[in-house]
Every structure is written in structure tokens, then in C-alpha cells.
# Entry
Amino acid sequence: MAQEDVFKKIVSHCKEYGFVFPSSEVYDGLGAVYDYGPHGVELKNNIKKYWWESMTLLHENVVGIDSAIFMHPTIWKASGHVDAFNDPLIDNKDSKKRYRADVLIEDYLAKTDEKIAKETEKAAKRFGSTFDEAKFRATNPRVLEQQARREAIHARFVKALNDSNLEELRQIILDTEIVCPVSGTRNWTEVRQFNLMFSTEMGSTSEGAMKIFLRPETAQGIFVNFLNVQKTGRMKLPFGIAQIGKAFRNEIVARQFIFRMREFEQMEMQFFVRPGEEMEWFNKWKKTRLAWHKALGLGDAKYRYHDHDKLAHYANAATDIEFEMPFGFKEVEGIHSRTDFDLSQHEKYSGKKMQYFDPEQGQSYTPYVVETSIGVDRMFLSIISGSYAEEALGNGESRVVLRLPAALAPVKLAILPLVKKDGLPEKAEEIRAMLRFDFHCQYDEKDSIGKRYRRQDAIGTPYCITIDHQTLEDNQVTIRYRDTMEQERVAIGKLHEIIAEKVSLKNLLKKINN
# Structure
């Protein structure tokens, strides 16, 4: 099945099973804004809990805050967002559709990589076990031609980004013959900059109102609270401040479901270090954050690092952790060395000292910062995409299953009486009452047991507990495992111990800490 078709099925699945709904759907929706349903909000909260505990429990020098969405407008002037938070915009004159010029070129480069990969895969099938991929890539004329063209375009692209050369970005689009996906034409406008911040007004009267912005990132709330946290928490460098919160960006092209939205949620940690030690910590956090992702068990090969072609105005190093979505490798988390830019800027614009006194060195200085920033919604999508599977069963039937990590699954276990009579529902309710305070349980007595298993597979429930007539005699139930569909007879008294061990976040945290 084509990956595009898989993605469409995932989007449909998310709506059908209560994970994600289009926002304001009864009014035909609102572009690139989504609501999380009953199962979606549980999964999202579990992702946030996994991140929060990995930061605050595994690192004694990381603490949290929750800063306001509304902040003084000068903060965004100091941070550079008022002047520099722009994306290059281009319109197609025929379709009247708007695109990000850099994304059009990035998609072209990705398609070139796919062509080279397909050429290599064909050769691998043709030559079998004797195939030498490195030699093939280094000698095949078609591959070499495509690779040379890709590298030339990439070099021009990087230079144009770093020089903010909008004319060159448009010329690259013309030279590579990129067409509008809607009209199929190359009738492009000039490229121009577009600021992504939403603005509003604060004040009781229109005359006295002050223009403010919905925050486009959560990081600045951390920076302006740096001294508050450091002093009240008696923190010593190095230390980090973690935060989870909403951010808002007026994206030119919001697309690919919840991957790029106008209202989204971030999990960010700013780690303050001595100047000169930032690259050491940058590399440490790269490894730590990749281990956090891989601990979920979605497949190590689905992750990779991608160093930035263009560094942000505040950074001296930046890399992304990318996940293989159905539409290609895409960023889910960024790790950045932000230097002392943010604290220095806020000191300059506020007139307040933003330095740290180092008792070991006997001097004050402005700390450097290493940032880890992850989109909750993108993380959600990566987990759904990595867990979704369609399986053919031995009896000629099939099932759709979400192999969600057990610790993150919205429903941990389903309690299923075999029939709705003979005292089985009462016994099932008794078991539910025993487990409900520790695990999110779902009770279901409608339809055949097979259909109920399929429903639980579709929402990612890792364990089903079936109560049958034998249960009333031996006080044992059948536990069914989602991934293998194997069944095991266990004593009711052991259920809590069995499930607790399997769904605990501790198992994930221990993998990171090893």
C-alpha cells in the first residue's frame, strides 16, 4: 500500500476512534486547528507525563514552570520575533494557493533522495546477495547524475537561506521546474517574507489598548523567569527549566494533519551552562533525547539526526531528531545551542541584570543555553504512525491494530464479560472496581468477544481481561495480549501485579537512564 494511502487511513482512524477531530467541524472546520477526542487526550497526556518525568525525575537539576501565554510585547522585540520570525512565502498565480518557498525546495530534494533510493532498491533485488550498495551509489551513472544535481541545488538552497536571498529561492523553484500541486503550473509570484505571529489587543478601551502577541514559542517565558527560578530554587549551573504549553503560529501552509498546525503544544527545556561548555552539553542532550524516543520501541531505524542547513539568529549549533512518518522523515524534536543570545537581549531591552554569579569562579556572567524543544502534536502523530498496522489473520480475517507503547496507551485494559448474564457482568464490575484507581479501564459487554477484541485493538488497548463461567468457579480470568493475540489464564489476585509491571512508565524511564 502506498504511504499516502496509509496516511489517509491513519487520519480517518484517528477520527473514527476518538483520537483527533477537526475543530469546529459542525461549522465546516477551521483551517489547521484540531481537537483531541477521549482517547486522543489520554494518549497526549501520557506523552506529556513521559516527557515531564524524564526531565524532572531523571535530572535533579531540572525543574519546571508554567508561564503565561500573554507576555509583554517588548519580549518579542528582544527575542527577534518581531523582526526576524518570518517564512518565505510564494503564491501560484493560477491556483491562488500559497506555499512556503523553502518547503517546496525541501520537498524537491526529498523526492530526489527517494528516486536514488528506489534506483538502489531495484539494483539490490536484481543482484541479490552479491549487491554492494556503496559501490553501486559510487559508480552508477543515473545515481551519480541525480546525486550531483541534488548537491548543486542543495548548495544553492543553503546559501540562499543564509543570505536571505528571496530572488534566488524563486530562481531555484523555476530552475528545478517545481509545479503547484493544485494547478500543475509554474506560474509563481515573487518570494516575500511573512511574519508568523498572531497579534491581539489588551486593554479596556480601544484608545488605551496595547498590541500584544500570542506566544509563538514557550521558550521566552523560561528566559524571562531565569533569575526567579535560579534564586528561589537555589539552583547552581548547570541546571534546566522545563515547560509544557500552547504556542501559536500563523503558518503559511498548515498541512499534513496535526504535523503543522496554527495552535499547537510544545515541551521545551532550556539548560543553562557555563560559556564554553555548551557544545559538550549539546552533544549530551542529543544522545539523551534520542534515547527517550527510542525507548518507545517503535524501531530505531525510524529515527535519525538532521543538522540544520541554516542556523537561527540565536544559535551556534542545531540539529533535529526526525521520525519516519508516512510522508517521509520529518522533525519531531529540535536540539539547539542558543548561546547567550536570549538572556543578553532581555538584559539589554529590560535594563535588568540577567547574569549568574558563579561561586566557584567568583564572577558573574551570562549563561549559555542548550534547548530541547519537542512538539507534542508531532510526537503524537509519530507514535500513532509508528504503531498503526493492518494485519491479515490466519482465519482469513484481518484486523487494524495500534501497537502503542503500553505505558502510553489511553486505555490500559478492557474488562469483558463473555456474556451479559449468569453473574458474569457482576464479576466483571467487581474486577473493574479493584483496578480502576490504578489503571484506565474500559468495560464492554456489547457484541461478540471477537468484535470487542477488534475494537480494543483499534484503540491500542494492550490487555483484555475476559470473564467466563469458569471464572466463577476458580477465580481466574483470561488475559489477552494485544500484539501477539496470545491468551493466558491467570488468577484475579495477580492481575494488578501483572498489569502494573507492564504499563509502568518506570520501564521507559529505566531504558533512558541505562
